[in-house]
Write a structure and sequence with these properties.
alpha/beta; 7-stranded parallel β-sheet; TIM Barrel; 281 residues; two-stranded antiparallel sheet; 10 helices
Length: 281
């Protein structure tokens, strides 16, 4: 995975392979606490790097804190080409519970804590995990601008933003990426966001990328999967890579086997019949 069709530029200084790894699922149930098998989580992270993954997505809310600690434990000192993107702006009250807290002063403290856990002097991409309607977007993004000016983050990204919120954020400062839910079965709400990213040169990180949908949509994937001797989920990932040059899928898993299958999806090439069947032309 080395040429321009299989890598993506983020900002003016980063280029990564277009299939990243979302580390969230390495936490315990409900994305809470440590997993039952801690060593397996570390093995998965190390194997991802061995397979050529050089983009890892995480957040302080995953665990909370656990996920960032796992990454440092498994991979530090980091490979020179590894890009770690993390997020701040959510709080956790327990397993499966997520609340927004976009206080600018808290965002700064969250970033500084992430730097310590990840053992970094600067975070390559720091993302506002979600807008908090209690605070002006200018203040939340402004806090990240201050962190960037202080050299604590390199680039600013956003997550769970509408198209209008993304445009508003870009009116405040440079935004290099957006992370929203997007997959073969559920994409209508974010088609416009992705098309905008494609036009504007932003990276679009689709989360929940492996949703194959109901029987009707699943059947189309199954037919193409059979043709390529692949799994439905591999075809769903390949679909994301073919959907737009802006996509940077970040599938996550606790399984070494599934990790290897996910990475292999980047090698699947669709012919004209596949593209037509999957609605890509």
């Amino acid at each position: 995975m080395n040429d321009a069709t299989t890598t993506i530029a983020i900002g003016d200084a980063l280029r990564v392979n277009r299939l990243g790894f979302g580390a969230m699922r390495l936490c315990g149930a409900g994305i809470w606490g440590w997993p039952a098998d801690r060593e397996n989580a570390l093995r998965v992270l190390r194997r991802a790097i061995e397979l050529g993954v050089n983009f890892i997505d995480t957040a302080d809310a995953y665990g909370p804190n656990v996920n960032e600690e796992q990454i440092a434990q498994a991979l530090y000192p980091y490979p020179d080409d590894l890009v770690i993107a993390t997020k701040g702006g959510l709080t956790r009250g327990g397993p499966g519970k997520w609340e927004r807290d976009g206080r600018p002063e808290r965002l700064k403290k969250c970033c500084e804590a992430s730097l310590r856990r990840l053992k970094l002097d600067r975070i390559d991409i720091y993302q506002l995990h979600a807008p908090d309607e209690k605070y002006p977007l200018e203040d939340m993004i402004g806090a990240l601008v201050e962190l960037r000016d202080e050299g604590k983050i390199r680039f600013i990204g956003v997550s769970n933003f509408s198209l209008e919120q993304l445009k508003q954020a870009r009116g405040i400062t440079e935004i290099v990426s957006i992370q929203n839910p997007y997959n073969y079965a559920e994409r209508r709400d974010n088609d416009g966001v992705l098309d905008y990213c494609d036009r504007e040169g932003l990276a679009f990180l689709p989360y929940f990328p492996l949703n194959a949908g109901d029987e009707m949509t699943h059947a189309e994937l199954e037919a193409v999967a059979k043709k390529h001797d692949a799994t439905v989920f591999q075809i769903a990932l390949a679909w994301l890579l073919h959907r737009s040059k802006a996509t940077l899928p970040i599938p996550g898993t606790q399984s070494l086997q599934h990790l290897e299958e996910n990475v292999a999806a980047a090698e699947i090439t669709f012919d004209d019949d596949d593209l037509t069947r999957l609605g890509l032309r």
